[in-house]
Amino acid sequence: MSVSNLLANWSQFRQAHPTEGDFHKEYKWAMAIDLDACTGCNACSVACYAENNIPVVGKDRYARGHAMHWMRVERYWDEDNRDMPDQGAQFLPMMCQQCEAAPCETVCPAGATNHTPDGLNSQIYNRCVGSRYCSANCPFKVRYFNWWDFPKEENVFADPLPLQLNPDVTVRTKGVMEKCTFCVQRLTVAKHNARNEGRLVQEGEVQTACQQSCPTNAISFGNMVDPESRVGKQWKAQQVDLAADKQVKDAGDESHEVGEHHSGTQLRGYRIFEELRAYPSVMYLERVRESAV
Amino acid sequence: MAKDIREDISWAQINSDVLKSLESPRPMYWVIIAIALAMFSLFVGGEIYQYRNGMWVSGQNNPHVWGLYIATFIFWIGMSHSGTLLSAILHLMHADWRKPIYRFAEAMTTFSLMTAGLFVMVHLGRLWQFYYSVPYPNERGLWPNFQSPLLWDAMAIFTYLSSSVIFLFIGMIPDLAICRDHLHPGWRKKLYTVLALGWEGTDRQWRNFRVTYLTVACYLIPLAVSVHSIVASDFAMSQQPGWHVTSFPPYFVAGALYSGCAAIITLFIILRYVFRFEEYMTLPILKKTARLTFAIAMVWTYLNAIEFASVWYSHDQASKDVLIQKATGPYAFAWWGMIICGSVVPLALAFKKVQTNIPMLFSVSLLLNMGMWLERWMIVSPTFSHGYYPWTWDHDQFPSFLQWGMVFGSFGWFTLLFMIFCKVFPSISMYEVKEMVYHRSLASKMGGKGGH
Fold this sequence. Notes:
The structure holds two protein chains of two kinds. Chain A is an alpha+beta fold. Chain A has helices at residues 3-15, 43-51, 58-63, 103-107, 133-137, 184-196, 209-213, 230-237; strands at 29-34, 72-76, 90-94, 113-115, 121-123, 144-145, 177-178, 219-223, 269-270, 282-285. The termini of chain A are far apart. The chains are: A alpha+beta, B mainly alpha. Chains A and B meet through helix 1, strand 2, helix 4, helix 5 and strand 6 of A and helix 6 of B.
């Protein structure tokens, strides 16, 4: 604890860019979600609840906007006049995008949310004071605040739910922010196992809960540094670049409007809100069905 | 034009008039104290309830993670600015009409900053970990995030608060000595004896005093500007539509001076009545304050128009949508209320009859402050209900009773502190009023020359 310590840390912090140096040396966790394969079945969301000890808040609290769904499946419609309310819905699974230049990280006063060398946006529950600035500045609004003292609330983990709580994941107390971690507990175990054997984590060795439960294989997850990884190949095939704020798919498009890009190519890969330059680690593959815009 | 102050008023008279305010205010004083106490207990009760139950009782949710607490926090920070305007800026500009009223304005600065600080705490999800966001030395070498505007905020507010307390105290030293010399023995006499720092009114003391006072005044002005610019950075540094506006820092500073001036008029009228200060807080001074408020109101209106225009011409659709939503959506009543109270009502201050009409000024000043409070609410909330991400658009959010109660109660806390201050310390600067009377009597003897 000294001023020189502070200055050294500060200078290191100021000069490090998340895509350079020690970052992404061995691992860069990333995801690709094929919206054409997504059927909106919500299995990913359920798996996420089970894996990460997420409190099930119930109908009333959901209506109040207190739901904690780290992985949520959103529904959108092209047209308003349809015969049945759910007809023609398009689905978008949305979770923390693990941005490389995350808007949430810079604004946290306590430094509770940080970038890890393997490209995750981490959240330290013990360090969080609950200013909620990270959520205020998140363009995707994928951060969830513990408005209630959930572990102690009735019916959140009603019997026999406590028996299925995942011992590798803490339950969060009231007043802290939480969000999707890319199942960091699984990544850590896989990394430790690999390190003990003197190697890197192989493709297919680790899966996120949502990926594992997806019946149509719409979600792929893996290490982008590994040239053999499925996710790395997908990103490459779609010519999506982690450090670019406009992808080849939108090259001919001069629109500067947020979320208003229209492709002139056969490529399908895009990231949400590229224009905001948060550099998300999740690539979505556009729908190719006729009804798709 | 009527005189700011009578020139034949004797120095002993000034002492006795002001000292009387420490002893026997009108009964209205105790009524105000009682109401303020009741309001403050509401605040304390609300906070205890929220602390025990978690933040859900405030009615905030995802995506509305900030609400009235942050809006009211900005409001109180803003109100603190005019104390510095009157005491430091007008001091440097030799506007001597400020002399009878700057002391209470300076006190207003201090106490509204303390109220604002309260809202930061109330807003936090884990109040008991508040110190995590402050750069305190600890053995783990854990620092807060120096990139975060909230951290700048914490530093700016603590600096401004401590500096204004020092400034308030320094300016009061000669008056504290007068209190020490005139009051009966008791706890107050002991207090004044300690605080007066052995003031005897020697030439050397006066010379040092002047230099110190001027230095602190010069130091305080950039602080005052920076503190609200930094509060503006909480929004301008973020990425959200409606917040990411370059002109926010000057806009916030103008808004701050504006609401502060309006609050000065309100408190001016209350103090004038409660402590029988009609002789010192005169109508011509009130008139000057009203004109100052009018000028600042117009600056604020102009900056407001600039903000709307720049959003419109930027073709940033997301920001534009937020603006349209403010004017036509569920917040329209508050947004138009802000425009009417903030830009139309102050036009009344242009009329000379209003400038010296106490009931009119009182109601206008309250309306102006309501408008400025609405402005802060309109900065914070609409962005949450209509941000970038369509899935989170939720226009129905309305703050819960608890949030409204806490906002209401905070006025009790402020009034309580302020009224207790005015009863314990001289709320009119005796020595400066004497100077003012002396200079003006000199000037009138010299036939109107040489005075200010």
